[in-house]
Structures are given as C-alpha cells and as structure tokens.
Amino acid sequence: MKVIRFSQNLMFTNKSLKQLFNILNIREFSLWSMKKDPDLESALSHNRRWIVNNQIKNIILRYPNQVVPVNFIQKKFKTLDLQGKALNWLNKYPCCFEVFRENNELYCQLTKRMMCLVEEEESIKEEQEPVFAERLAKILMMSSNQRLNVVKLDELKRNFGFPDDYLIRIVPKYPEMFRLINYSGRKSAMEIELVPSNPELPISFIEMSASKQKQNNTEPAFSCSLPSTWIKSWEKFHDFNSTPYISPYTKNSSSLVEGTKEHEKRTVALVHELLSLTLWKKMSVIKLGHFRREFALPEKLNVLLLKHPGIFYVTNKYRTYTVLLREGYNGSKLINKDPVVVVKDKFGELMQEGLHEYNQRGRLSNLEKRKKRGIIIMPKVEKKDKNVEISEQEEEEDRVGHSGRLFDPEERKRFYKILFEEDS
Fold first, then answer.
1. Locate the PORR domain: which residues (predicted)?
2. Would you say 353 and 117 are in contact if contact means Cβ atoms under 8 Å apart?
3. What residues contact 60, with CB distance under 8 A and at least 6 apart?
C-alpha cells in the first residue's frame, strides 16, 4: 500500500511540476508580447503557403529527372510541418504541380508554367551575382572578425537571396573579396573570410536614406513607424534617436562599452542593417541569435528588439519568433522589392490562380451533386452581418486575391477550408 501511495504522490507531483512549467512558459511568453499589428501579421500569413510550396518545388528540382513519386513527398510532409495526404495538397495547386500515374504509381512534376518561372529565377540570380557578392561582403564586414562559419551562414542564405550553391558560384569568382579558411580541418569549421584590404566603408541603409533627403546636412537617424497615439513609445524613441547614429560598419566598435547608449545604438543599427539586406526585411529571432558572438549581440536579444517597437516588430506567428523591419512595409506590402522577390511573387500568383481554379471546380462539383439529389439552391441575398467575424488572414486574401478578385464571406470560408483541412 505504501508503494502504491508513494507512486500516486509521485504522479501528482509530476503533474504539478508540469502545470508549474506551463505557467512559467506562459509568463516567459508574455515577455515577448507586443501589440499586434494586423497588417504585419497578415504579411506573414500571406507567404506561409508560398514557403511550403517553394520547399516542395526544391524537392522536385533536386530529384532525378525532376519527377518525384508522391509517396516520397508524403514522407517529407513532417519536415514541412504538414499533415494529411500529399496528393490532396498537390491537387490544390494544378498550375504549379502536375500529378500523373505511371506503372500503377503516382508521380509529380512541375508544370510548364512553373518551369518557366524556375528558369526566370535562375536567370535573375545570374544577373544578381555582383549584388550577392556585395551583400555577402557587407555581412562579413559587420562581424567582429570579418568572417563567418559556413554552416551557420547556410541557415540564412535564403533570407539574403543567396543561391544554394553560392560557395561554388559566387565566392570563387571574387578572390579579391573572399577566401575560404579552415584552421581545424573539420568540415563544420569552414569559414568565409573577407580578404584584408582598405576599401571605403559601405554606406548603411540609414545613411543612404539621409543622403536622399532634400534638406541639406540631414543627419542619419532611425525612422519610427508607430501610431501617434503611442505617446510613451514616441518619447522613448525620440530620446534614443537624439544621440548620434553609429554605423554598423564602423571599425572601432570593439571600444564601445556594453550597456552604454552608444553600444545600444550600434547594435540596433546592426540589426537594422541585417534586416535591410534580407529579401523580405525579416528574419527568425532564433537564427539571428545564433550569430550573437559574431555580431556582438546582447544575450537577451528579445529585450533589445522589444525595447524599440517603432523600428522592429516581433511576432510569434506559426510559433516561430520573427522580427520584421517596420519601415520595410507599407501596411502588409513590401515597399522595395528585390528582383528575386518579384519573380517569387509570380510564383505566388500562379499558386493563387491554381488554388482558385481548384476551389471553383470543387464548388461546381458540389452544386452538381446537390442538383442530382434534388436539393433546391436558393439564390443568395447579400447582406452584411456585423456579427460575422472574418479572420485577418481572410481579410488579407481579400486584399491580395489573384487579379484583384474579391470573394464573398461564404466563398472565403470554403476557400480556406479546402486550403487548410484535409479533404474528406
């Protein structure tokens, strides 16, 4: 009996510890809380499907003959953070993926229109190689030793638009700028180093913006993208912005003492510049934290980011903490689009077209089934119901729907039900 009671007490203790752990997690989560910006939240919602389909596209392109068994894509679904049947997902994007049967097995390949976009993207990347080289040099110049670990940099290469084979394609073409070093001989220890030289320091995006101002002698300063009602945040921002701007490319940054306003100013400038160099002006906070030593970032990076809500926006959309550069967006729209982003947007439009086509086919099929059953379909009477709540993601789809088409609430519900739920 004592053994049973002891085990019961132990189970109760474990349960209590779990509850306490969950409470602590909630409290820790609250430290990350930032007032939600619907536009910036929807900007992330908008590209979620694109990210998944882009990964499927890369899987197909790497496969022999670029024809993949659907069962192989099904096995990759867990790594794509997806559930359900791969066939159902692929069928939702008929403009992107072509599914066919051969020898009693299902296969998938990219459509002709999709392959045209792949070739266009490859052509743009070839033209952008000098830009990629300059971008890589800037990133290395901001690091403390002007070199970065290749394995770590690989985590962010797509954020900056670098092609997967940038080590072979770009680095050897610019020996006057880069060199690969490996002092230990281990593959994981390989680093890219900026070749020592005395070039002029690059101009940061903040300094570039100041030089474009019509007024003469405009000092470089951060811009704030907060509503005028955020009075306290504006006061803190003006106080922070009153001290001189420190370029992230400055060579004497090591002399700055941590905890001082000057050190904070340079750190904010560095994160701002890194985000400005990315394609979508955003980055995973966790991945950014992996470079804490290389860029001399504070241990509590989240505290720094949340301290400057007028410059950065932090969100935990899809349970992944992401920091966005507020000034990079106008509402939910990216302001300055890199040529690589433009072609990737075409991919998104092709996705949207196929998804709308799939949705319409499903709707017509359901109408036919109802007619055969003798169900009378009454014409819809349009009326606005204030009690009907539409999610921010649905509102975003209204604004960015393919070719500007607007869907009524009922159609939107069906649209997202087909998108996010497995077909019955």
1. 35-355
2. no
3. 66, 67, 68, 97, 108, 109, 110
What is the rounded CA–CA span in Å between residue 59 and residue 173? 28
Distance CA 90, CA 330 (A): 32
Q: Would you say 39 and 329 are in contact if contact means Cβ atoms under 8 Å apart? A: yes
Distance CA 52, CA 76 (A): 11
| Backbone torsion region of residue 257, taken as left when φ is above 0, otherwise alpha when ψ lies between -120 and 50, otherwise beta | beta
- 256-304: per-residue pLDDT in tens? 767 788 888 999 999 999 999 999 999 999 999 889 899 988 888 888 8
- Would you state the structure tokens that stand for residue 273, as one six-digit string? 């510049």
pLDDT tens string 162-196: 988 899 999 999 999 999 988 887 888 899 999 98
Cβ atoms of residues 325 and 332 within 8 Å: no
Write down how long the chain is: 424
Q: Which residue has the higher pLDDT, 412 or 44?
A: 44
Type and span of the H or E element at 147: strand 147-149
Q: What is the pLDDT of residue 215?
A: 58
DSSP of 168-226, one letter per residue? HHTGGG-TTTEEEE-SS--GGG-EEEEPP--PPPPPPHHHHHHHHSSSTTPPP------
Q: How far apart are CA 66 and CA 74, in angstroms?
A: 16
- Strand 282-284: give its sheet, edge to edge: 282-284, 322-325, 312-315
The pair of structure tokens assigned to 114 is: 């999709």
CA distance 109 to 355: 17
Q: Is the CA virtual torsion 279, 285, 290, 293 positive or negative?
A: positive
Pairwise CA distance, residues 416 & 393, whole Å: 9
Query: Among residues 89, 148, 115, 414, which one has the least CA distance to residue 287?
Result: 148
Cα 369–Cα 374–Cα 380 angle in degrees, nearest 5: 80
Q: Please give the Cα distance from 412 to 390 (Å, whole number).
A: 9
Q: Which two tokens stand for residue 44?
A: 């992330």
Could you give the CA distance from residue 63 to residue 57 in angstroms, rounded to a whole number? 10
- Unique residue bearing structure tokens 């040529």: 339
For residue 398, the model assigns a pLDDT of 37
Tens digit of pLDDT for each residue in 74-90? 888 877 777 778 888 88
Task: Reduce the DSSP state of residue 333 to 3 states and report it.
Answer: strand
For the packed helices 112-127 and 129-142, what is the interaxial angle rounded to 10 degrees? Answer: 60
At 293, the amino acid letter reads R
